[in-house]
Structures are given as C-alpha cells and as structure tokens.
Amino acid sequence: MERVEEIAERLRREPYHLLKNDCIIKSQRLKRECQRLGVPARVVVCIGLAPARVFGWWVTMPVVHAWTEVAGKRVEISRPIGSAGVWGIVPVNIRPVIAIRI
DSSP string spanning 59-86? Predict the structure, then answer.
C-alpha cells in the first residue's frame, strides 16, 4: 500500500488540465499502476454536489468527478490534498449523488 501512496502522490503533483489530465484520466492511470502491482483497484465516476465560489458567492453546484478505490479506500488524486481547483472546489468536499464503479 505504501507504493500505491507514492504513485498517488506523484499523480497529485502533476498539473491538472481539464482535457488532458483531469480526475478521470489520473484515476485510470492509478488503477493501471495498482493492477500492475497486483493491488485491487477500480475507478469511481460520479455526478456530485460541491460548494463552489461563483462571482464571489458560495453556491452548491453539480460536478462530474472521479477517484480511485484501492482496496476499498477512496484515493483522491485530481489535486494535492486540500487544494482548491476552479471556483474553489476542493475534491474531497464533493458529495456523490450518482456513482458508477468501473
């Protein structure tokens, strides 16, 4: 599991780009790396609700997000832990409404 955390931290440090290196792509990459190590992993894609700052106001808005479940544990890798993205959205604060495990 220590090796998985090292891989996850490396992916978190990579720049986030909506079309080239977003949460779905990074989650798929972590899943592949885990499978190479023989660790069970799957990607969870969801439509969720997140607090966001839009034009100076805090609102709850729907977002599409993904993470990897490694040995039953949610591993967020879209951004460094606790850092905010566009509109102040922090990935760990996203509440899934509909989730699909791949």
Answer: EEEEEEEEEEEETTEEE--SSSTT---G
